[in-house]
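Sanity check

After download, print the first record. It should look like this:
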Amino acid sequence: MAARFDTLLVDGKMYQPQKVECREFFRSLGGVVYGLAQQPWRSLWSRDGSSGSKLHSTSWMDGIRGLAAIAVFNLHFFYNFTHTVYWSYGTTDHDTHINQLPGVSLLFDGTCSVVVFFTVAGYVCSYRSLLYITTADSEGLFRSLPGTIFRRFFRLYLPSICSMFAISMLAYLGFYEPTRYYFNHRKQFFPGPGVEPQPGRHPTMMAQLTDWWSEVSRMINFWTEEPKDPWIDFHLWTIVHEFRASMHLFIVLVALAKCTPKARLTLLALMGYVYALQWGHWYCLCFFYGAIIAQLDILRTNKSSPLKLELSPQRKVEEKSATNAGCLARKITRTFLYVVAIYLMSFPIRGTHKPAPLYASIVNPVIPAVIKKSHMFPKLHGFVLLFYLLSTVPAEDRPNSLWHKILTHRFCLHMGRIMFGFYLVHGMILHIFGYSLPIWIWALIGGNQGMFRWLFGLLLGWAMAFASTLLAGELWTRHVEKRCVNFTKWLESICFEQ
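Expected structure tokens:
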């Protein structure tokens, strides 16, 4: 095969990027991956692994966060190569791809994943406190809440700071240089709408560390009205928003601790919409909705069962008939609501700028102008509806629920366990070599002309980048995140009275 590594055919033109020893790179990468992969993969497929542990009533939440992490990776990989992950089916005459259909598009929609992360985090952060509040256990509340607030900063920021340090050092050592040419000539090699910057390389270690600390200082400054995105890793913009929303939620929970459950639910919803509609902080509304669903779950599970009366045989038959009819109506209603939830979650990222059919006429008119990330508003309400539907599936019906079968699958649960580590390293992997894999594959097969070659190079590059990120996320979770958690526990044991 007359494949050449010094030329690449893009849009009918030949380009000569910086030469990269592809064979040597892949050979070295394969050796490293093979040497490191055995133990992490064993944890995924072994029956004794953590992913195969006993399921709990909230295990499906780990699964949905795991799938959301995959969607984030898919968006950040594909949006450098195609605009179809941003626009919906039917936006133009050319937007007729299957991945743009509502529902299917969620596989590539990392923005909806942010809503998933924030809403589930709101549920998790508030559940224990709301349980103490609902049971009028003030001592338990003020024994657990300070620890939760104390750990929250370190839980979010320590792994993130370590990730930024690793990226900064790798940039200084030159790991990003083989692919920098492609980013400097973005329009030639990355025709998609992605605009992620490549981490900068400074001439001295001191300058590199100064730049790293400057970015860390910007990221942990959650007091500013509009936090700045860290340029070392553009994807970490979510960290400061998640921490801010957590702190606001904790304050509101304490303020509403003495309220009745109905008043607390009403005020949580009211405060959430004040944050979103008055100040544009849609991410706080996600957290508040997570707390609302947690409160509803607590009320539902703690509710004492009513007194059951003995019925006559005829009355039992009538009750059974009415119950069957009610079950059918309930199934139809829930199915319809699932469809509505998926439809809203699939609102295109560029939906307000390039309106698509139905979304333009139905959804766009109700999006408040104050919401800067306007596409988040329908996605938020769609996922909240889905989250509520999933949380209200009766425990006895969950083994037969398709949703719960998918979300509690071993792979989904494993992805949920390493979700944070996977999220932190995916940008690092993509920028070092992940984005360049399709380019190198196209060079090996003689170009990217034609749908088959283009798809082959793109999908094979995606598979290799995903496998590498999965491995790196597992290693990061085991060796970095775990140590951060242990350090936080140790620090808490020193600072708090036992």
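If your output differs, re-run the checksum step. Summary of this record's structure: Confidence is low (pLDDT under 50) at residues 1-7, 46-52, 304-311.
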